[in-house]
């Protein structure tokens, strides 16, 4: 009976978000309170479920997500992203320009939130389209596929970081495994799939103009790559050290401190502040203004993550999580596939990849704990599912349609299928890794 109650309230959540257009955080909050009362949580304890859910979910993530947003905003504002793109386009030449843009999207997409990355890189796509007289969708889709994959699979993006926290996964290992899964997904959904889209006509908006240059210099090639990729290199290096059985340092208190993702992000942001900020002539006030705007950009994402934590906690406190795990275990479906499927279905209903991933996590979490599935792989499986079925209720769908001047039919044919390929190839990669990782 409790399972049907949860299904009803998840459906109600979807109705609130998609049909009634209620703010996502408020939807989570109201639905969670109603679900808690219906499931029999005493009213004098329901407030504690709300506070615990917010604290457990958002508490460990806020620092990482906020610092990641600051780093991404600085990479964009300083011109480092543009520098990386120009270097790669020059290196690959016009014949392989798709691959140059794909790699640009991948590198820039690691620290940059998806919406910001999209707005930043679309003008670059069209400047190349106009310069070399190339089909816009054919050229641009690989870059946007790379952005989508980093958003769904790789820390420090909010969704994978939140999933890692919920599933008690290792952020460093999730990043390493995520890179292994991401590369084939990007290639298949990007350059390979885009070959079928050369004949799609576009009528892009005429707003791809640079802002007036501020009184500071763009960073050099070395500084641009250094500042953008430093957190990735640090997390991978520390993960290798941590899993080296012969390294006594990996078990020390000092290593535990410096390998914490929050500390890694603080160090990375401090290095970037100097390398592509102060060193290029920015004042400290200007850099801090960039960081303030970055926090405003991701404030609602933090609230959505916190809201999902309330629903998860209500399910736990009511005992429905244990009942749900027992029911799911009876299904003849592998837990990794089930996590992907639940996220995919919610994504189709609500449009938001982040909401889909976090809602699915609350449903699949008890099963994952009982079935002893590798939590890092579950992060990637749910992340892959959250990218599936992007259509007319997804803001990214409409951004792509309007910026590229496409019909709904051509947007479905290009953008929606690209997201499906990313999702399916991502799940396939996770299942392959599961054969070798226990």
UniProtKB/TrEMBL annotation:
Say where the protein is mainly found. Answer: membrane
Q: Print the keywords alphabetically.
A: Cell membrane, Membrane, Transmembrane, Transmembrane helix, Transport
Membrane topology, from the record: Multi-pass membrane protein
- Pfam families cross-referenced by the UniProt entry: GntP_permease
The terms under GO molecular function for this entry are:
gluconate transmembrane transporter activity
Q: Where in the cell is it found?
A: Cell membrane
Membrane-spanning segments: 5-22, 28-46, 58-76, 96-129, 136-154, 174-194, 221-241, 253-278, 290-311, 337-365, 377-400, 420-437
What's an example GO cellular component term for this entry? plasma membrane
Against InterPro entries, the record matches this protein to: Glcn_transporter
What does the sequence similarity comment in the record state about its family? Belongs to the GntP permease family.
Against NCBIfam families, the record matches this protein to:
gntP (TIGR00791)
The identity of this protein, by name, is Gnt-I system high-affinity gluconate transporter
Provide the species name.
Hydrobacter penzbergensis
């Amino acid at each position: 009976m409790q399972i049907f109650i949860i299904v009803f309230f998840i459906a109600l959540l979807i109705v609130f978000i998609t049909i009634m257009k209620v703010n996502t955080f408020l939807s989570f909050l109201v639905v969670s309170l109603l679900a808690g009362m219906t499931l029999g949580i005493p009213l004098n304890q329901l407030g504690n479920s709300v506070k615990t859910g917010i604290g457990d979910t958002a508490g460990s993530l806020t620092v990482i997500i906020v610092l990641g947003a600051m780093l991404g905003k600085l990479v964009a504002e300083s011109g480092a992203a543009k520098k990386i793109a120009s270097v790669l386009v020059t290196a690959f030449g016009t014949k392989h320009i798709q691959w140059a843009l794909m790699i640009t999207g991948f590198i820039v997409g690691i620290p940059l939130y998806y919406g910001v990355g999209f707005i930043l890189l679309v003008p670059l796509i069209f400047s190349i389209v106009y310069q070399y007289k190339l089909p816009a969708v054919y050229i641009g889709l690989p870059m946007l596929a790379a952005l989508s994959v980093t958003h769904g699979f790789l820390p420090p993006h909010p969704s994978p970081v939140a999933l890692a926290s919920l599933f008690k996964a290792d952020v460093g290992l999730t990043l390493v495994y995520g890179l292994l899964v991401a590369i084939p997904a990007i290639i298949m959904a990007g350059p390979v799939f885009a070959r079928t889209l050369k004949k799609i006509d576009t009528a892009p908006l005429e707003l791809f103009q640079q802002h007036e240059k501020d009184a500071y210099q763009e960073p050099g090639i070395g500084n641009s790559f250094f500042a953008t990729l430093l957190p990735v290199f640090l997390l991978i290096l520390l993960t290798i050290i941590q899993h080296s059985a012969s390294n006594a340092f990996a078990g020390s208190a000092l290593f535990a401190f410096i390998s914490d993702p929050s500390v890694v992000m603080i160090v990375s942001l401090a290095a970037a502040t100097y390398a592509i900020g102060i060193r290029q002539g920015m004042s400290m006030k200007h850099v801090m203004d960039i960081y303030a705007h970055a926090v405003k950009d991701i404030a609602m994402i933090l609230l959505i993550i916190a809201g999902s934590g309330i629903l998860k906690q209500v399910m736990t406190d009511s005992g429905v999580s244990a009942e749900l795990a027992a029911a799911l275990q009876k299904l003849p479906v592998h837990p990794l596939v089930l996590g992907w499927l639940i996220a995919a279905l919610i994504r189709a209903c609500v449009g938001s990849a982040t909401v889909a991933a976090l809602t699915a996590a609350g449903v699949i979490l008890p099963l994952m704990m009982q079935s002893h599935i590798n939590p890092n792989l579950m992060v990637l499986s749910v992340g892959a599912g959250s990218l599936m079925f992007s259509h007319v209720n997804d803001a990214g769908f409409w951004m792509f349609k309007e910026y590229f001047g496409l019909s709904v039919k051509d947007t479905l044919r290009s953008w929606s299928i690209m997201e499906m390929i990313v999702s399916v190839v991502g799940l396939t990669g996770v299942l392959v890794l599961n054969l070798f990782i226990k």
